[in-house]
Amino acid sequence: MTTANQQLVITETPVWFITGCSTGFGREIAKLALAAGYRTVVTARDPDDLKDLAALGHALVLRLDVTNRHQVEHAVAAAEEKFGHIDVLVNNAGIGYFGAVEESEEAEVRKMFEINVFGLARMIHGVLPGMRKRRRGFIVNLSSIGGLRSFPAIGYYNATKFAVEGLSEALWQEVEPLGIRVMLVEPSGFRTDWAGRSANESKNVIDDYAATAGIWRREVRASSGHQPGDPVRAARAIIKAVESLNPPHHLLLGNDAYNAATAKLDELRQQYAAWEAVARGADFPPVARAAAA
Questions:
Q1: What is the mean pLDDT of the chain?
Q2: Which residue is catalytic, options 161, 168, 188, 209?
Q3: 48 with 62: CB under 8 angstroms?
Q4: Would residue 157 show up in a list of annotated catalytic residues for this protein?
Q5: Is residue 43 a contact partner of residue 75, using CB atoms and an 8 Å limit?
Q6: Phi, psi (rounded to 5 degrees) for 190
Q7: Which of 22, 38, 104, 143 is catalytic?
Q8: Which of 24, 27, 115, 288 has the fewest CB atoms within 10 Å, i.e. is most exposed?
Q9: Between the CA of residue 226 and those of 65, 167, 193, what are the distances in Å?
Q10: Catalytic: which of 157, 168, 188, 209?
Q11: CA torsion, points 43, 47, 50, 55, in degrees to nearest 10?
């Protein structure tokens, strides 16, 4: 029996490919991967933000905007040419957006979906051919506790992360028989720039939402830089999970994430049980099903 603490024995230096390395989780994961001696593809929209990482270990620094198909194809090809293959893809690039659902601006919402969902999917499409050929690989998709339960003021951000959850769950059923692992990372509040300059805010303000989305937006903005989560510890946890013999499909990070996720499970169980008879009663009666067969 394997446990969460058992580590995979690595016979060759793995190649990590990380998106969104200019700040936050991406930067910390890249630093730790390089410190561990891993060959690491470090990417950002502006490579000048990565100058310090370029000097660490076996780093390949590349310009990458995940919304640009040409750049994605070029980056994957450059990584495979330099290192021969990609072992681990970390889909970290993403943005946030604040606004009640009715307040939200379509252009901003589409921009966020293009990065958080379609950009992530574009990277998966880019690395899968090589991983399938080698019958080996690991895809880490950065989701959020907001991909498991929603919160006011970030409804459309929640929607992007719920999409990542659904895509990833289907993906691991498709690729794990081929030797490729998939893991969702679901953090709560960490001291990254997610709630700071990285997240735009709707210019539309509707007074009726002041006591819900408005309060929540102000509180989250005010907490930026003071969240309980430590990005360095989170990066260590992600690397440990990837290296483990039995990695989880869902990796919750932070006390708030764990508490919120388990509370959601309890809520769902209670609601499902309360409406079980109605749910089961929606099928044809057993006699009718037997007759139809």
A1: 92
A2: 161
A3: no
A4: yes
A5: yes
A6: -125, 160
A7: 143
A8: 288
A9: 29, 32, 11
A10: 157
A11: 100
Taking the C-alpha atoms of residue 72 and residue 83, their distance in angstroms, rounded to an integer, is 16
Radius of gyration of the chain (CA): 21
The residue written with tokens 């690395």 in the block is 127
On whether the CB atoms of residues 148 and 165 are closer than 8 A, the answer is yes
Q: 4 — phi, psi (to 5°)? A: -65, -20
Between the two ends of the chain, the Cα-to-Cα distance in Å is 43
With H, G, I as helix, E, B as strand and everything else as coil, classify residue 293. Answer: coil
| Catalytic (active site) residue 143 | yes
* pTM: predicted TM-score of the whole model, two decimal places: 0.92
Q: String of b and e for 210-228 (b: at least 16 CB within 10 Å)?
A: eeebbebbeebeeebeebe
Pick the closest to residue 38 from 22, 23, 53 (CA basis): 53
Tens digits of per-residue pLDDT, 246-273? 999 999 999 999 999 999 999 999 999 9
